[in-house]
Design a protein that fits this description.
It is a single chain. With 443 residues, this protein is of the alpha+beta class. Among the domains are: 129 residues, no CATH class; 74 residues, SH3 type barrels.
Amino acid sequence: MKPSLWKRISFSFALASSLAASAGAQVPGLPVPSPQGSGLGAGVRREGIYLTAPITVDGAVVFRVATQQIAGNKIDIETRVDLIEGAIATVLAQEGNVRGAPTIYDPETLQVRVQTVDGQPVVVASDKRHPAAIAIATVTASDAGLARQPAADVADSWRTKLEGSLLTALQIRQPNRLRQNVRDLSIVVAILLAVSALLVYLVSRIRNYAARIRALEPPSDGDTEVAAFEARRDSRLSLAKAMASTIVWILVLLWFGTAIWALLLFPVTAPLGRQTLQTASVIAGIWIVAGLVNRIVDIVSLRFETTYGQIDPRRAVRVPTITKAILGFKSLVIYFGAILLTLGALGFPVASVVTFGGIAALMVTFSAQNLLRDWLNGFLVLLEDQYIVGDRVVIAGYEGVVEDLTLRVVQIRDDDGKLTTIPHSSATTVVNLSRPAHVGSSA
């Protein structure tokens, strides 16, 4: 099996194993990055005249609380979040604060309701063992203003969301549920190991099949038979490569999905699981969109090449040269943008990356001036239609037919069959023998 396959499989297995193993350890919730220079705490954001912050249960946002943006309110909203999540932690606490012990509050008899205290609706929780309700969150005028609803309606919405989240959180903390989750995880991992072994075996068989196809000798009778043989061989090799790549990616996704599921099974790792799933979804979306945009531009360019090239014979030859040069640069721009968005999704400050990239680009500029000059001159060659593939030219003292043309170099083949590669920066004067009226163009 090729090293690249082993690298992918080893990476996916190591990732899944490390994430699943962390289920038995305390993992803090991952913070939501705030805008650079905003001066706000994690998760705090401005919405109109309000500052808002999330209230979470096991890393999942249940609702947001709000305060008006006046002096001192940043501290007020952070204090408010601490008080609400402290009350939630009290409801979810385990007896003696011992991990694996039953929770103090019973999920079977838990009740979350709304009470009115001093004219304000308050979401409270109680159960059979704690008939005296514990206040969790008070709905303020700011909360009602942000939601543009009466305070009572906001309180009822909070109660519904909080009740479902607390019940789920209490249930997964019960000792019986934890033991069942460990058993389920062990069974799934065992099955996945067996499936992985089978898939690895299939990939090795496919690669052996591809090796046998490459080793086949073409027939010796006629160019037509040889061409047909090579076409069939290339088709089979492409199919084998596609099948092997598909199986490898299925294996990686299976392990990644299992790792996320394992994290979500346990309360201490659920925040990490949700954050990882969210980040992975964003990154996958970025690269899917980048691939689609790249493909759409390719299709549009092909249509343009087909339509525009029918206007006259010279354009029919010139347009493919231009599109070939531009499409390569287009892919660079699209995927560079995707890389920046991916870094942003991973929490890296994109502004710093761009600044560092600008400094690096400036350093490269001084060390690669000829390369940049080649690209600029190549662009002008295409823009001004100085010569195209198939023209007979004299460039830098070399005469021949243009065989290939990129943004950096031009390749000409002389009458002796020798191929000469000339950077565009060296082509100070061009003589186009295929167009007698077009002589002495400066590149």
